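Journal club prep — side note

Before the paper discussion, L.F. wants everyone to see what a predicted structure for a comparable chain looks like in token form. Sequence:
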Amino acid sequence: MAGVVVLEMTDSALAVTLLTFWRRAAQLAFGGFAGFIGDRLGRRATLILSQVVIFAACLSLLLLLEGERLKAWQITAAAFIIGAGWTVDAPARAALVPDLLGSRLTADAMLLESLTHSVLLGAGAYMAGWLLEYIGASAGFSALIALTGLNLLLLAWLGRIQVPQTTPVAHEGVWQSFVGGVAYLRGNRRLLTVVVVSALINILVFPALSLMPVFARDVFDRGAIGLGILNGSFSLGSFVGLFLTQRLRRRMSFHSIFAAGSLLQCIAWTLFALSPLFSLAMLLQFLAGVGQAGFYAMRSVILLTSSSNEMRGRAMSTVALSQGIGLPGELVTGSLAETAGPRLAVSVQGALAGLATLGIFWKGKSRQSAST
């Protein structure tokens, strides 16, 4: 939604990608310490604090819009603040799952969380497009404020439940916590592969998401409604992909599903950028969502189940850190889209990501075969 507003203000693809750039800058700035913050403050307190920050940022945008003083740079600043909030929120939320349910149900819980996320994201994409087209940006920001407020109420209710938490690292300093997390990651090849692939896809593939307003308006000439349809198709694919993931995980390893999902979304994004038809683009967005489901869900499951109880908060913080590493990709994608067009930018980067990801998994498989 914010991307559409900025695009209408500036008519610049680069300005649109800068929204994601600054959100990733927040992830890069805070991602390495997010696990430490959750351990030091407590995971539930961290969740409430981050949602308060997000609520305040959304409310500020609405007030500026209603006062006719909203500028593109203010939306960009809010993107950084909201990105910081989500960076701290996500590891604490994921690390809280084993506290609530135990390690045996962690994989099922993360799949359910991903399913809920995809349903709400898909519904939100369609609703955002409809609100922007027929009511205006103020309605979209109001909806964000209402949802964030509901989230705060649910977190307050959760705070009444007694949950044990393992936080032996809470007395470490910030730097010791960060160094310890890096050392632990380097010593676990499975975790390291997941983080490297995640960083690669965030650098080359995910910046395409920030260009969706450009594809909807300038490439396919469909406007805000078209944006909602494209984003909704992606979310619908994620929804279906989670069902497939649930079935496949009984026959395939978590790592194999993660690899398949990573490669599928790289291929789908590449073909999406080259699609001459909006209907074909919708289908490819759907397939990208299917791949993203396996990538997203299994990334979290692998990080949670392959790390110790003491380190899982810091292991999950690498997700935000790997997303923040995608910071240069936003600038490259935006600049390339400005000079050569969004089709070339997304297709070239998607193809490079697919080849590099395939090489990483192939090398890891060869090492595994040699060791056995």
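L.F.'s comment for the group: The chain has one domain: 2-158+174-365. Keep this in mind when we get to the figures.
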